[in-house]
Amino acid sequence: MSEPLIAVEALHKVFRQGFFMRRVTAVKGVSFEVGRGDIFGFLGPNGAGKTTTIKMLTGLIRPTAGRARLFGQEVTNPRARARLGFLPENPYVYPYLTPTEFVELCARLSGMSAGAARDRTRTVLAQLGIAYAADRPVRRLSKGMLQRTGLAAALVADPELLILDEPMSGLDPVGRKEVRDLIVDERKGGRTIFFSTHILNDVETLCDRVSILRRGEVVVSGRLTELLKREVRRTDITLKGASSECLERLSRAGHSVRALGEHVVIEIEGSAKVPDALRLALECGADVTEVLPRHETLEELFVREAIDEGQRSDPPPQ
Ligand SMILES: Nc1ncnc2c1ncn2[C@@H]1O[C@H](COP(=O)(O)OP(=O)(O)O)[C@@H](O)[C@H]1O
Ligand SMILES: [Mg+2]
Hints:
Elements: E1 6-17, E2 22-34, E3 39-43, H1 50-57, E4 65-70, E5 73-74, H2 78-81, E6 84-87, H3 99-109, H4 114-127, H5 143-155, E7 161-165, H6 173-188, E8 192-197, E9 209-214, E10 217-223, H7 224-227, E11 234-240, H8 244-252, E12 256-260, E13 263-269, H9 274-283, E14 287-294, H10 298-306
Parallel strand pairs: 3-8, 3-9, 6-7, 7-8
Antiparallel strand pairs: 1-2, 1-4, 4-5, 9-10, 11-13, 11-14, 12-13
Helix pairs in contact: 3-4, 3-5, 4-5
């Protein structure tokens, strides 16, 4: 394999907080690598340590122990940083600038000529769907527009690697889908994308590889296609026009049935009993409107791997 674009090795971060300098261990031995062309999801609930890891990865804070490298170089090396586009968790955009001025400023700071910065700014603002608001002061923009302005700034210098901290947070479902599409498009254009999110099910069709963080530790990590159990966990058969006699027959045969408005759903564990349920339903004249095999979701994987019985909700780390 060629040199990973991101290599993180046993990163630790201990914060000292308050008058008594209480120790808060935010990150405890996190390791992962991101290869060229990957879409890598850095997942986990709020407070898991994602932002702290990203800050160490981008050289904003120093690790207590361990190391992080970008493009095979120390993260503090300006040459490594020049190849990186970064969207912070809550992007700060100077409120009296317009998106055009802010994004152009970022382009100029990364070394682009005035003409190239102007052209490229226009292109990325159009790509992100904010061309129409490009000349309004940022303080008049919605949260979604701000997030897009931050994304435009991350993209403007045409970086090889994008690091995005919660790029979908604060966006409505349409906005979240647009960011997902943008990530896929940018990868097609040859970029590598590393992003964090606490919304697991939003991204399971998006990532090639994931690391799931919990209380500062990686609890699940690998290729999504290998991590998610392939077999069918449950099959839902939806019926219409099932008589009460029909439902009774199904129940007597050991099937679990649930009313859903004018429909009835038969919930079958796995798929072995599907033919039997279908035969019974058809025999008693019900319409089968849907047979839906359900596979494991990322959220279910997280619960399976990360959360022990009796520990269903996460207290903050010590
Ligand atoms: N500067 C800081 N000082 C003290 N504690 C911090 C600091 N930054 C983060 N933390 C704590 O570290 C833990 C991880 O936070 P964070 O990395 O922001 O998580 P995430 O991004 O996954 O939501 C949290 O418990 C948070 O309160
Ligand atoms: Mg965060």
